[in-house]
Amino acid sequence: MSQKPLTRKIRQLILVLVCLTALGAILGSLLGHAYGANLPSRSLQLSDSTPSAVATYNFSFVLPSLQNMGSVEIQFCSNDPLQGDVCDPPTGLDATSAVLADQTGVSNYTIGTGSDANKLIIVSPQATAASDLITMTFNNITNPDSPGSYFARIQTFSSIDTSGSYSDFGGIAFSIESAINVTATVPPYILFCTGITIPNDNCTDATGDYIDFGQLSTISPGQGTSQMLAATNAASGYNISVYGTTLTSGVNTIPSIPSSDVSRPGTAQFGFNLRANTSPSGGLDPSGNGSGAPLAGYSTQNFYQFNSGDNIASYIKPDYDRLYTASYIVNVPPTQSAGVYVSTLTYICVATF
Amino acid sequence: MPKMMSMWRRYKRVVYVFAVGALIIGTYIPIFAPASVSALSGVQLEPRSIQMSDASPSGNATITTGVGSGTNVSYKVTFTNTNAFNSMAINFCDNSPIIGDTCLNTTAFPGETSPGGMSVSSAAIGTGADAPTTTCSGGAGNTVGGTGWSISEPNAYTVYLTSGGSNTVCSGGTQTVTLTGITNPTPVESFYGRMYTYTANAPASATPTAYTSATVPGSYLDYGGIALSTTQVITITAKVQESLSFCVTSAIYSTWTTTGDCSDPNVASHSPSATLGSVVGTNVVLTPEVKSTATDTFQLSTNATGGAILDMHSSNTCGGLSVNGGTDSCPIEAIGDFGLTGGQTNTFDLNTAETDDAALFGAQLGTATTGTAVISGLAGTGTLSNIAPYNGTGTLFGMNDTAVTGVVGEYGNEIADTTAPCYLLTDTLTFGATSALTTPAGIYSTNISLIATGSF
Fold it and tell me: Which residues of chain B does CATH 2.60.40 include?
């Protein structure tokens, strides 16, 4: 008599079990993924591929199907990327200080316990469904210490602690390579040359070293020009000075102009400046890409001077090429002794590095 | 229900005795009974053969389809018949090919499982390349399984091929008919086929004795037994691991004469470097307003299905050449900083840099070639696409130092890519620089990390 209720209970129990089994199968087919499809479109981009560099590792992969991903294990190996093979840790690689700096496609994942020098365990508080592109960026990973090919093995798990069978797997190869050391030495540099003319601001084109004032006159100055080109990469720029004597013929001289003065025909004068002048007409202002400029005594139009050892032009920084034109004048009085008057001038450019 | 249980208890002994008796009679009657085998002046089908498309046993839990599964197998039956016929039967036995012998199979002998798992129940006549053929002449209807013929399976081990009445197969021809959709036995063993031809349009209609089973094949014309065998499938596994080989060296490729790939000793012995300038005295220095170049060589091999990208990352945060790691400025600046029309991705002519007295630093990719592995002789494959502004030629150089995506970005600037796997893809990277008259004296440098990233 009591068999009927018992049979009914057994039937009910069987029905419940069947329903649970069916439900499990449906959920499994929707969310589960049995044992290891390849993770497609997987890559590992390093911020620096040089040996022993502390680099950022950017992992990217796509889950092959909608699934609950609770944790991820990333293992670095030097021998191969094949799941199940013994993993030889890359020498020098150190992920113990790794920081999960960024993640896309998922959220709230953190580096979990079990991580070590060549293994990263990334866990989530709860398994979340994901099937899109996932990226995980880790900072502070020290690269292997030798050039060569290395491998990463990625496994995803439905559990939140990498327990149980993995869901999907993917291997990645990446390369460590010595950096290209690019070097270029720039030596201390000064460009300086003189000539009667220096065409094209090019020292190789400089020509001439002799000025002939001709027959001097008491009513108009004798004139002549020479040029000098200067440039330097010296941090404190350059300074050009002039050395030499005034015009001399034996014991006779034509005195130089000790302080800046205009041309005075009929008066004994020898001097120059670095400007374009109008009285008398002649000379050129400085030109070129540089910024150097004549110094006092030689910088005023129509005013001339000459003292041996004077600084005549300078610039306080590195300077591009600058072409200076020295415009000379000579005046003599009626009493000037006859003779051939000669002067030799030396220009010296000193750079301060 | 209780009434039925009572009846069962009452008569079960009788039922058991009857069943045992029936089993004994069923087992031994075929042995002692006169053989119901009657060949009508027939001879052996000779030569004869059955060629299997897959000799694997069925029931493989791992391999469930295709070769190795033992399922959906084609049996190519070939024989030469002496007599013309209108139908034939083929049956398969576990124990013997002898005509008239007991034929063991799962239905005949309880407890016997061989050739368990075999089934011809879904067999069909092959088509296309498997269509029946004959050496008979005389037109349609002369081929077993050809026009007008049909197939039927009276049980899981027997196939009937019937002509439909007016498609008699000629005498003295070689016939080939392929039976598709057969499931092999599950054990690894030898098993047998028996073939019979009949004058009747169907074996079951043979006279005076009709075919009823392998042990009672009826009045057949020609006949023949054949041995077949299932064999253990050979599973071949080959692993192809992800690979990415990338190297950079100052040795030009023509000197990689030992291996021709990244393992070449010349690669390891010539660290990548680029010293820009010309020899002055005992030093190599940059001459103002004169461009200098230096070239390194790199090689990429990868089986990444999506190919690989090549990024260039500068250690100097200013992107150019610096005397202090680029923490403040780069007196020899990246070309991309030089106010190019069109932005950072334009190339710039170093000849112009000379004229303009500019201090610039840039790079230029060569035209990639495929190398050759010296030992194996294998030729390289693949195509590398140069990306602006590194794709200039002649004196056109580039250096994109845009924040984030330029050479100063976290992952550097992409300079080249390949969209498919490649092998021994070899290219050059030439660095170029000019210094200005005002470029401060010093030793300028940067560390360039070339980063190859495969998309697997």
Answer: 35-229
Q: Which helix (H) or strand (E) holds B15?
A: helix B2-32
All structural domains of chain A: 33-176 (2.60.40.10), 190-351 (2.60.40)
Nearest to A235 among B311, B313, B440 (CB): B440
- The structure tokens 């327990």 sit at A163
- What chain B residue is nearest to A80 in terms of C-alpha separation? B241
Chain B residue numbers with beta carbons less than 8 Å from the beta carbon of A230 are none
Q: Kindly report, residue by residue over B240-255, the tens digit of the pLDDT.
A: 999 999 999 999 999 9
Whether residue B448 and residue A179 make contact (CB cut-off 8 A), yes or no, is: yes
Which residue in chain B is spatially nearest to A58 when comparing CA positions?
B411
Please give the Cα distance from B174 to B179 (Å, whole number): 16
pTM to 2 decimal places:
0.73
| Fold annotation for B35-229 | Immunoglobulin-like (2.60.40)
Distance from CA of B289 to the nearest CA of A (A): 11
Q: CA–CA separation, B369 vs B371, rounded Å?
A: 6
ipTM above 0.90, yes or no: no
pLDDT digits (tens, 9 = 90+) for B56-113: 999 888 899 999 999 999 999 999 999 999 999 999 998 889 998 888 874 444 444 4
**Host H or E run for residue B236:** none
Q: How far apart are CA A343 and CA A220, in angstroms?
A: 20
- How many residues does the structure list for chain B? 456
CB contact B414 to A (< 8 Å): no
Chain A CB within 8 Å of residue B72 CB: no
